[in-house]
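Q: Convert this sequence to structure tokens.
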Amino acid sequence: MITDDKINDTAKVLIERWYNYLGLGDWTIDIRWNTDPDWENQGDCQCTYGRKYAAITLKSTVTFENLRDTIIHELVHVVFWRSFNSPVLLEEAKIIPKKAYDLWFKMFEESVEYDIDSLTNALCRIKLLNDDDLRF
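A:
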């Protein structure tokens, strides 16, 4: 459980700011904390696109230095969730042989993460020119 109220409050403020910047103002975004020491991710996102709801899970040991970038990364996943999780795309790809599909899907996932990381880095650099999100 997160015991540092400052990082929890900072996470809430960052989500509120950035979901508006990214055009997600009509979405409900919840924060969850993962305390599993074996969890390898810094963050994760699950969306219910039709309800405009997302749950962002952050690693409980996330640092202030990584908090903003992790939150923005997960919010960018929300923006592109429908495109990257299109049932048509994922189902139609299954017509290819299983080994080829598994390879394609792994490459697709890696490509999505790379693209979202690139976009996140650009957004952070642009925003830093205007203000510092971590100053309260």
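The longest strand covers residues 28-34.
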